[in-house]
Amino acid sequence: MASASVSARLVCIGCGQEQREPAADFRCSHCGDLLEVNYRLFDERRNLPAAAQLRELWRQRKTSLTPADLSGVWRFREVLPIVAQVGEVVSLREGNTPIYELPRSARSAGLKTLLAKHQGMNPTGSFKDTGMTAALSVARERGFRWVGCASTGNTSASMAAYAARAGMRSLVLIPEGKIAWGKLAQPLEYGALTCQLRTDFDGCMRVLGEVIDRFPIYLLNSVNPYRIEGQKTAAVELMEQLDWRAPDHIVAPGGNLGNCSALGKGLLEMQRLGLIDRLPRLDVIQAAGANALVRTVRETGGKRLVGVAAETLATAIRIGNPASWKKAVRVLEATGGVVEQVSEAEIAIAKAEIGEDGIGCEPASAATLAGLKKLVAQGHVRAGEAVVLILTGHVLKDPEYTFKFHQGSLLAEEESGKKLEGELRRHQRAPVVLDAKEDEILRLLERESEPGQGKF
Questions:
Q1: Which of 243, 242, 240, 260 is closest to 251 using CA atoms?
Q2: Contact 54, 77 (CB under 8 A)
Q3: How many CB atoms lie within 10 A of CB 392?
Q4: Fewer beta carbons within 10 Å, N or C terminal of the chain?
Q5: What is the pLDDT of residue 43?
Q6: Helices and strands per DSSP (H, E), number in the chain
Q7: E strand or H helix at 403, and its extent?
Q8: Is 234 part of any domain?
């Protein structure tokens, strides 16, 4: 395994300056922009095997019982040379997430076929684990005892689990009352010092920035470029699962925009290494109430961030000032992707439709299907094209959302709108309360068996 000091370097995405000793907040010391990991290995190429050899090496590791090879992140360590000793990484066997076919969702979107890569099948139930194993391994290698993050839920769960695994302490700052209970339970279970602040996510990030200036805590939000490196391996694993044939579109939800930035970075590096012969379009979907990237692209052409006061029930993407917006704009431009927004009702319907394919996901994940429908209607996606949705979180991350949806209490009347009311009701399936008598169950089964009564 190559040493990080030899093969990896941090470069500012704004001014291009290399940062040999990055600041605690991972901002450029010259212009204040975000940093990105670049590799001399990729520049030289002579230090890397040919594409065919890499593919075969990674395939062979699937049968290995070595801890690093059991990880769906570190199995691809040739494109992830950020630690000196791969045998010392902190891993919970992250990655290795499945691809599912979604036939009902495909019909709903107007496509012949539709696939979903479910990153919610990671150890703590979200895509964050693929980045956390990378960044926290760097933190431990560099001697930190504390790690910290601001979070709307998934980051805190992932960081706390990996810190516990590494024998480290973790600090979590979350916005009070704006996090799903299924997510808040996780950092508590993993022993994190958890603080609910009377502010939003952006306020939590501001406070955390002040704390790390005064206390030796290693920042593990997605501004940390090593998080992006781990998360990019989801794109590598996806291409391997598709036998290295790139789909036409990959559709991902957009919150703080680190994940779509990571997926894009992975795709661009794979093309550069000859692992894939073309780039899929990477399309990003945001909630209409947290649509900073949508406004940034449409109002400024991607030149200036247009922040918003974020509000959406899809808490994982309730972020108004996304840190990685420049990286996301760059990925959209490089892949020919677009950004779209969807309403609360559209997200809720899409979540239920994915569920009717037997696949559960958190609300933010379902924004992908909701947005895909719009992209098909606009002609950006054609009926015969190959499309993969990125589902970022597990259905049990936010069970209260699901309960309220099926009971009809999730959305206010003005949020659902007359146009979608019938569609919402068609997918709702509240528990039926009956007396404990078999005759009542039988009558219910008979009614449900009548033509036109089935929900699907």
A1: 260
A2: no
A3: 30
A4: C
A5: 57
A6: 17, 13
A7: helix 399-407
A8: yes
Q: Half-sphere exposure of 372 toward its Cβ, with a 13 Å CA cutoff?
A: 38
- How many angstroms separate the CA atoms of 438 and 104, rounded? 32
Tokens, residue 291: 């649509």
How many domains are there within the chain? 1
Q: Which of 221, 211, 230, 231 is nearest to 150 (CA)?
A: 221
**Angle, alpha carbons 176-179-185 (nearest 5°):** 105
For the stretch 333-350, pLDDT in tens is: 999 999 999 999 999 999
Q: Which residues contact 153 (CB under 8 A, 6 or more apart)?
A: 174, 179, 180, 183, 184, 315, 316, 397
> Which has the closest alpha carbon to 64: 77, 52, 51, 80?
77
> Is residue 57 domain-resident?
no
Asked if residue 93 belongs to a domain, the reply is no
Q: How far apart are CA 68 and CA 79, in angstroms?
A: 14
Whole-angstrom Cα distance, residue 193 to residue 206? 18
The H or E element that residue 217 is part of is: strand 217-219
* Residue that has been written with the tokens 């989801």 in this structure: 234
- CA 310/CA 390 separation, integer angstroms: 22
* Tokens, residue 253: 């939800």
What is the C-alpha to C-alpha distance for residues 219 and 197, in angstroms, rounded to an integer?
18
φ/ψ region of 273 (left if φ > 0, alpha if ψ in -120 to 50, else beta) reads alpha
pLDDT lower than 50: segments of the chain: 1-6
Rg (C-alpha) for the chain, rounded Å, is 22
Max alpha carbon distance in the chain (Å)? 75
Is there a domain that residue 322 lies in?
Answer: yes
Q: What is the DSSP string of 158-199?
A: HHHHHHHHHT-EEEEEEETT-S-HHHHHHHHHTT-EEEEESS
pLDDT at position 49 is 79
| Residue 386 domain boundaries | 99-125+226-424
Q: Are strands 99-101 and 339-342 parallel, antiparallel or unpaired?
A: unpaired
Q: Of 339, 236, 232, which Cα lies nearest the Cα of 285?
A: 339
* Predicted local confidence at residue 450, as pLDDT: 84
Q: How far apart are CA 286 and CA 367, in angstroms?
A: 7
How many other C-beta atoms lie within 10 A of the C-beta of residue 228?
27
